[in-house]
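Internal tracking record. Fields below are filled automatically when a chain is submitted to the structure queue. Please do not edit lines marked as system-generated. If the sequence contains nonstandard residues, flag them in the REMARKS field before resubmitting.
Queue: standard
Priority: normal
Entity type: single polypeptide chain
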Amino acid sequence: MYLDYYKLKTKPFQITVDPKFLWLGEKHKEALATLRYGIVDNRGFLLLTGEVGTGKTILINRLVSTLNIDTVVATLPDPDLESMDFYNLMADGLKFNRTFDSKAAFLIALRDFLYQSYANQKNVLLVIDESQRLNHQLMEDIRVLSNIELQDRKLINIFFVGQQEFNGILNTPQNRALAQRITVRYHIEALDIKETSQYIAHRLKVAGSSEMLFDGGAVSEIFKFSGGIPRLINIICDHALLTGFARGIKKIGVNTVLECAQE
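SYSTEM-GENERATED OUTPUT FOLLOWS
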């Protein structure tokens, strides 16, 4: 609705995961470097945490797409599963082209696959998104997967991605054995006010704008109401542009943001 009015080619603040809008601040670059090291060096278990809407999923997609090593990747977007459903979903992601009726059969097939991947100089990566939804039994099953290894090398990297609460789940006595195996951890923080301004400007530029459509006061209010969470920034900015279009406002100011954020 407001694209022509603001001379935009596409909506800049949609909440869907679109890689062309990815903005990498210093903390995101640090996260990518840390996690890439963990995968390339075959460190076994890795963990990325962050609050809802901080951009974990799009960051992981970027990480996987830019790995400069031959890597077989299976991604589980929601692990709220029973064990056999988990095994079969993992098998599908690794392209086993078969289903399994027992844990033993799956583990034998996985072992053979990992040995063959190692022989072919391929890394294997399992990404488990929304890890805070894992139940204890499944966490124990996942821990067992890492026992398939060589004397000097992990044969599979298992990458947990989840909300901050997952750390609390890991720290319970029943999950301590798994927690002790996580060798690389990174927590992605919300944006600060400077990063919020850079983030907004970046998305506007990608969408085709040649100018910053929000003044300094507007950015300050967006930061205050969003807490620096990118998903909330997107929601407020999109609403503000729609309101600005409806009222004939070319540059979004404080009053427009206040009105949108409080609705």
